Amino acid sequence: MDFDPTLLRAFVAVKETGGFTRAAERLHLTQSAVSHQIRKLEEQVGRQLLHRTTRRLTVTEDGEDFLRYAQQILDTLDAMTRRFQPSPITGVVRFGVPDNFMGDRLPPLLSQFARAFPAVRMEVCVSMHTDLRAAIRSGELDLAVVMSPPNVAEGTCLRRTQLVWAAAETFEAPKGASLPLAFFPKPCVNRQVAGSALDLTAIDWHVVFTSASPQGIRAAVLAGLAVTVLTREEVEPGMKIVDGRYGLPPLPSVEFALIWSESGKTPCACRFGQMILEMPDLAVGARA
After folding, report:
1. Is 258 within 8 Å of 277 (Cβ atoms)?
2. Residue 205 contacts residue 198 (beta carbons within 8 Å)
3. How far is Cα 58 from Cα 203, in angstroms, rounded to an integer?
4. CA–CA distances in Å: residue 237 to residues 10, 91, 240
5. What gap in Å lies between CA 202 and CA 206, rounded to an integer?
6. How far apart are CA 3 and CA 58, in angstroms?
7. d(Cα 240, Cα 165) in Å, to the nearest integer?
8. 285 contacts 153 by C-beta, under 8 angstroms
9. Which of 41, 61, 148, 224 has the most Cβ atoms closer than 10 angstroms to its Cβ?
10. pTM over 0.85
């Protein structure tokens, strides 16, 4: 049995307004048209849904049950209409993000945005060594997630995380020799923070491996070639945290922040930025 949503809306309107006259006003119809719709609905259901007298109108027991289903159907139809209505927003969103921020969350985010705004084109730069701040300043990107060094407040904070020294579980520092390290190319916050911390120690160290790829850094670490700096969440099986070993100094926490270019707050970019802010398990606090 298929029910016409128009008839369901008429029935709900009569119940909520308490009569045919006010329901007709809400639906922008005549009173006789609403009465006809209710009669047609009752004929289709085969049950009396409303009890009418000269003084009052009440909903029957069957009508109360039917009302719950009707409201659920209409709520679902309204949600479906909002979800699939054509979007008036068009344009291009240019977004930059480091590899270690979103991980597996990025594809679902892009898919959700593409479904909601099919007329918007996405241009995404995912990299650990690209200077995303410079791209924002030059207007090459509209918005970007960047890792902020300690005591640097910028944009909107999305997440705070702790930097750690990491090595392979089997790693042992060479005795009497320089400590081998692996880093991303400059500019890199991990490398910057590590260098500043090491400058305050007497450790003899050198960069033995450089890669722009997170997979390359992980491979070098897991092979036992070097120690590196990662966020605590990036330490994976086969690695160990070596904070305090080999004379390594403690490292600070850092922030991931969402920043914008001066001309980047277009309607489509703002919608994408809002989706990032609303992502679960990302936001831990906001700072304008």
Report:
1. yes
2. yes
3. 85
4. 61, 42, 8
5. 13
6. 22
7. 8
8. no
9. 41
10. no
